[in-house]
Batch of 4 targets.
Target 1
Amino acid sequence: MSQKPVPEGWQEVGFKDFFEILNAKKYQVLKSDYLTSGAIPILDQGQEFIVGYTNEEDKRLDPGNGVIVFGDHTRIIKYADFPFAVGADGTQILTSKETVIPRFAYYQLANKKISNLGYSRHFKLIKEMMFWKPPLCEQEKITSILYSVDQAIDTTRQVINQTRQVKRALMQELLTRGLPGQHTRFKPDGTPEDWNTLPLLNLCKRITDGTHQGVKTVDKGIPFIYVSCVRDGKINWESSSRITESDYLTISKGREPKPGVIVYTVKGSYGRVALVTDERPFSFQRDIAYILPDEEKIMPAYLALYLDSPMILTHADSVAVGQAQKAITLKELGKYPIKVPPMDEQQNIVMILTSLEGRLDIEIDKLKALETVKISLMQALLTGEKRVGLADQQDELLEVAV
């Protein structure tokens, strides 16, 4: 039974009175048979919403009013209201009982805390859970509010993806052919005649990597970052660990962070870039390179953009070594070919691309805010803390959702 009292007018029911399990086996497609395009999308327990396609009509699952896709190993939960095929083993398909709206059932399940059992199966945990079921009219109102936030989230994600595509296309053009209309003479490789192509090492005062020593983390102290902390051109400080100031001073000699330094991941998820823009002290592991540009030869912001370009990622793929986790050696990193325009053109290219990044940051912040709103609304609505049947509370909730 739940520790909190069941809201007035609601029922607490077990799994079997809330969900029905659909037989997914006959709709499964072997991973080796996934297509990159096709008539029927494939959903599985992975992070990506759609993992492939198939043209096998007998694998098409009609979801009716909607079904829930649950990752038995991953605990990932998806909602589908369109025909699809089922991916590899470990994907469970649920629908709701007649007295439960399918999308409401999805929100209820998504709001549950499911213990992490590693790569063990988690479906057994769901079967033991209890679920709160409001009257249908209240389910409809709750679902409508949460779905409106979901639609805003989806729209914002589409804007982010489109902006990123525009940015990458613009990077490809500006970082290889320069500013539109500025050049009339080009080298055989398409580079403007007054540009130079130099190895990264020749453009930097120092290239090294992070500490090779083991570190002892503490609750409070100087940030210590990992490869996973470098994403989307920024350092995610929230996911960093902390080390003592004395350890920081010891392991950061020769690699002290300062504005203009570039950190570049070189192992595992290699090719992630972040430009240091403030005086905040931090240290990092050996899987991250420390690049100190020579500002008389190249702008740090331009170099950071170039290292984050599709051209350099393609080059990185060609020189990465290793089996389980590929890596870029410092020697190969120093050989990276960098196209260098005159300084004034570097400045103009940086201004154009950072303006686009600014718009992207606004949308990313908007997405984070919407996701926070959704979490708050789910907690309030799905536990009966806020009742949409009460006029004074419903207006407040609708205003937040919009």
Target 2
Amino acid sequence: MEYAVANLGVSLIMVLGHSGCSAVSAALGSQPLTPLLKQLAQPIRASFTSRARPGRGS
């Protein structure tokens, strides 16, 4: 994606998900994660954490 934006002039990227995403399950779980899965889980965890803070809206 970064290459597409930086080098190909792509102005819109659509990211689609799927049901039963293992990355989301891993991010919400408490099991130890591999280094790659930690990279995937960090922004997911941050998203859930920011939504759980009081005064941040819905």
Target 3
Amino acid sequence: MTVTARSIPSALLDQASIALLGRAARQAGRAEGPAAILGFVNAVLPFTSCLVTLLAPGRAPVLLYDDIRPERHEAVVDAYLRRAYLLDPFYDFLSGGLERRVIRLQEIQPDHFRKSEYFSTYYTDTRLVDEVGIFVPRRDESHIFVSLGRAARTAPFSVRSFQRLQSWMAVIEALLARQWDAEQFTAAAGALVTLDDTLQQSGFAALSAREREIVALILKGHSSKSIAWQLAIAVGTVKNHRKNIYRKLNITSQSALFARFLRGIGYAPVSALVSQRADSVS
């Protein structure tokens, strides 16, 4: 494709943005590359935090880069790598086969995602009000995944800035591939992990395969209606399965279901960590 002045978004023709792009092009593939590349991306789509991982379906993410403050690393990055990613809509989107390489969370989240315990616990801990994901394919069939977030104290990504990001994706993909599409970064470094395996190891072994399948969809934020559509069964059947699941696990709520999952992956919500630290001080 021929790039002309007319095809370049006018909002990026200022000298500062051009300088950032030049720096990113010079530094890509070097130690300074990640910060330089994300600096240019930030000029295109202003974000407050970013996380870059190597993703491959069925494997744990490999951390490539992040700009998360040290005091927030445990709640955001460590928790994500500790298997919270298994419930992440972006990870699910990749596992289901990519239809697009740049997408907003609101376009792929399950129907009850923002009512889910995952959202109110882990996602609230990340303090994000909006998130955009970028997927860049690599030669080994894995993907460089860039999560760009907007903090809760800020406004969500604007439609205009998201469109600007889409306009510059060819350039951004090339920069990211130059930085991380190399032999020393391999998807095989991520352990082989599935959500079903995790559930069997997290106190859900008493459930049948179908029941664990329904638990997985509940944890991800799907309603009974959405689960019925996903599994091609009746809504009433889903509700009966939910009753049996709660009975077998001796629980009475979705929050208890999620709490069992969190214990299984060794994740403590920020509120719990704060309480523990306060107790230790007192």
Target 4
Amino acid sequence: MSDLFTVQDTTSDVITRQLLQNLEGVESFAYEGTKSFTDAFGEALNAFMEVIKEWFGSQPEVIDAKEFNEGYAEKASEVMAEVFDQQTLEDWSRMTLEERAEKLDEFYVKMGAELGIDAKGVIIADLGEGTFGMSDGSGYIYVDYRILQDPEMLSEALNTTLHEARHQMQFDAIANPENFPDISPALIEAWERNIINYNTGAFDFEDYYNQAVEVDSRVFAADVIEAYINKMGL
């Protein structure tokens, strides 16, 4: 599960250091599968796409979310293929938690530069069981350490980063719509209304899952992952 949230001064270097220090001593897991890690990763990505495409078919809102995705998704997938190239995939299972975090941060910041969003960095934190990521529009996104600790959750780490990056784009488009001429004013207005009345899912998960900004972020992540699969031949 990913989420939007609001806190004060989240861009502070002090808070960033405190969150990272809380994870001091947390070690990454080794990959213990029988297949090569790259093969297992490719299977996980394709399984994700099968599930998400089935969901697409039952959601008319997906058409609106795909309205302007092609150019953005192509740029994001190019960065993803650059940062998470064949060599990185081969090395991922042996990387430390810090090394994995650095790769995810590199991906998010480079993607942000390509998409024209305020991507300051990725903060790895303990978000609690079941919450993979969070975004507050500050330029930083928060990713739970568990999906980096386990190498077999790389597909979820990438999906979460893409999902939260899209939330950052939503915040940026609301604040500066002139920077996103490809996004219709009506869609930006829908995002703004949704964020003002954001449903955290505390009482109704389906309402959370199907609200406009969540559908849009989910579709964007899937479009990027599909393009990445094709580029990498996974």
